[in-house]
Write a structure and sequence with these properties.
EC number: 3.6.4.13
Largest sheet: 8 strands, mixed
Keywords: ATP-binding, Helicase, Hydrolase, Nucleotide-binding
Enzyme class: hydrolase
Region (Disordered): 818-840
CATH topology of the largest domain: Rossmann fold
CATH architecture of the largest domain: 3-Layer(aba) Sandwich
Pfam families: CON_HrpB, DEAD, Helicase_C, HrpB_C, WHD_HA2
Number of domains: 5
Helix content: 25-40%
Strand order of the largest sheet: 4-3-5-2-6-7-1-8
CATH superfamily of the largest domain: P-loop containing nucleotide triphosphate hydrolases
Structural class: alpha/beta
Length: 840
Amino acid sequence: MLRVCSRSILPVSVFPGLPIAEVIPEVRRALAAHPLVVLQAPPGAGKSTALPLELLHEPWLAGQGVIMLQPRRVAARAVAARLAEGLGEEVGGTVGSRVRFESRVSARTRLEVVTEGILTRRLQRDPELAGVGLVILDEFHERSLNADLALALLREVQGALRDDLRVLVMSATLDPELPARLGAPLVESAGRAYPVEVRYLEADPVGRVEDTVARAVRAALEREEGDVLAFLPGVREIRAAQARLGDVAATVLPLYGDLPLAEQARALRPGSGGRKVVLATSIAETSLTIDGVRVVVDGGLSRTQTFDPGTGLSRMVTGRVTRDSADQRAGRAGRTAPGVAYRLWPARTQPLLPAARPPEILEADLAPLTLELAGWGTPDPAGLPWLDAPPPARIDTARALLRDLDALDDEGRITPAGSRLLDFPTHPRLAHLLTAGNDPALAADVAALLEERDPLPPGSGADLSERVAALRAWRARRPHAGDVGVLERVERLSKQWRGLLKVQPDHTPPDPYAVGALLTLAYPERAALARAGGTGLARGRFLLAGGQGAALPEGDALAGAPALAVAHLDAGQAEGRIYLAAPLDPGALEARAAWQDVVRWDGRTGTLVAQQERRVGALVLATRPLSGVPAELRAAALAAAVREEGLHLLTFPPEAEQFRARVESLRAWRPGEGTAEAWPDLSDAALLATLETWLGPALGGARTRDDLARVNVLPALQALLPWPLPQTLNELAPTHLEVPTGSRIRLEYRVGEPPILAVKLQELFGLAETPTVDGGRRPVLLHLLSPAGRPVQVTQDLRSFWNSSYFEVRKDLRGRYPKHPWPDDPWSHAPMKGTKKRGA
């Protein structure tokens, strides 16, 4: 039974007493007055399952539809089903859903629950979102890459095209700064969760997480009431825990994103009499309500994808759950009654967990986002109102890949081929594989296999061609070695790709080289050549076009291949491990190769190598000598050698070191004086950073370490001082000072210390003031020497020395050097260089 009026269709019989009802009037008022509103409501409050229906008849909606974004397919389907159930309908009526390759909408649909990629596609095709009056971004606290992108695009649409479009950002947990950063009002729902008792282990668990979780589930079934929801990091751990719980008095069900729809629905439905244990990944943290759950077992781990911009590779990383995720998980036990949460770590560990994961936009592979921005007409991300702007270095990495995929031109604008990639709901790599090859049926099979789990058992080797052969054998009902369940999922996905490509399935065994050629379309930087001397332990080691080393597991059938196209590998520390690849015809590399002039330093021989190389990235297919080496290439290669091996490759004579010390001293003494006459930075770090500028002109024909050692660096350093700084340097930091005898004594400069004037004491007789540099600002440090040139006193106060210490020094010097005069009154005695008779 529905309560129907002009403003409300809240299904009270299906969602009785939901806490969100208390703030619905406030949400209505906020959306009527503001284009962007933030709602914070804890899990179970009803923000996803009741509020959207309440808003369908708001006057400002003016009969338009509502789109609600859900980050995950499982949640999108479940939420749509729950909303439709509340109206007594099936999904596809008033409430519809769209996920990848699945659309359940009709002409009657007013509220669509969609996944993130679907919303982005809709915005790309219709930036004005015609017929849509409200977009709801649910579970925004997860800060997924696509949610951040959707919000940025929607805010731009509101500012430029649709001032009547409303956006409601909903979050279970809230960054307290979010409303202010968005300039949006905040509506808060206190929720009505039941108390959850949290229990910790006494010590850190030992062994595999699936074993620890299975033991905790058994204990919970014995001690507690209700169904159990257990969190594990991935499918492998879920399957292992399920096997260990085969004898418990409960139905044990998995729940993860790639699970078939019927099995997902079974895990989410209320139990039919007996108890239920649901083993889930982090998809069950939010949005999904699993009726009957009174106990949560949290394994404490989460699996996330991490992108390494240095290698261009993404890999799945298992790590500690964050504190906010742990709270979300525990809250699942208190949705319908008081519950218990077993945390499989000690209480002392809880405050040490990360508070939350950083927004995905700061860590993820940004190639999909970069292509979307180019398609939107904003290749420069700075043009959009981000919550957190994507890091420029990662955007640069993404642009380089997209240029290799022919998706962007040199200015970063989208190409016709790039626009075609946006029509395929997958990563640009796989979209390029699907669109650029000459065998679309094979492309559909390969793309599906790359997106799904491996259908072959462990130890089957890395050859992707064997997976294609297994898929086609299963499809043709021939014998095969694959997992039927996985092959069924792969075939469903391949069928979707074949539908988009308008091709029929192929049942013939694949050409392995054709599989390799397709892989290079998706992963151009992962074309690989066997390393030279690949025998014995070195067999199976390869160099990728991107410059990274990688190796096959020992004994793999592909180890003897001269070339590979690599699909999946881990980044590794020094050398990655190849998990999935296909043989590559070296001729395919030759077709991509181009001659390049290469001038590089060979650190082993200490010589400059100049040659032309036929290359694909880091792969060298052929070489020939290069004559007439361009000066800029020579300078760049030698500069790289000096940076790699250090400035000690160059010879800095004392005059050069003193020149540097004089300039550096003035930089320290006169900071910020005269912008036009700023003293250059001649520190080691600065010189290494600017080698091409100052050293390049001095290199001449240098080709070896010995040549570099003979380069005269002093003129090169002096050339860094523009006029009139050389004259100013000589005035403020002279190389010599004249003393009373007329001698010109060399100064020794040390950065951060006063310059040293080492002078025979007798040459300063009669001089009262300490000599200075820096225009009289800096007294030098006097090293007063004996007639034999040995230091007898160090001072910066000559007057004080004559008045006090001199007389102690005089006693010693008179005994050592009797032929030299040591007057009682040094003030009046004439300075002298040599000896005189006593009394003279």
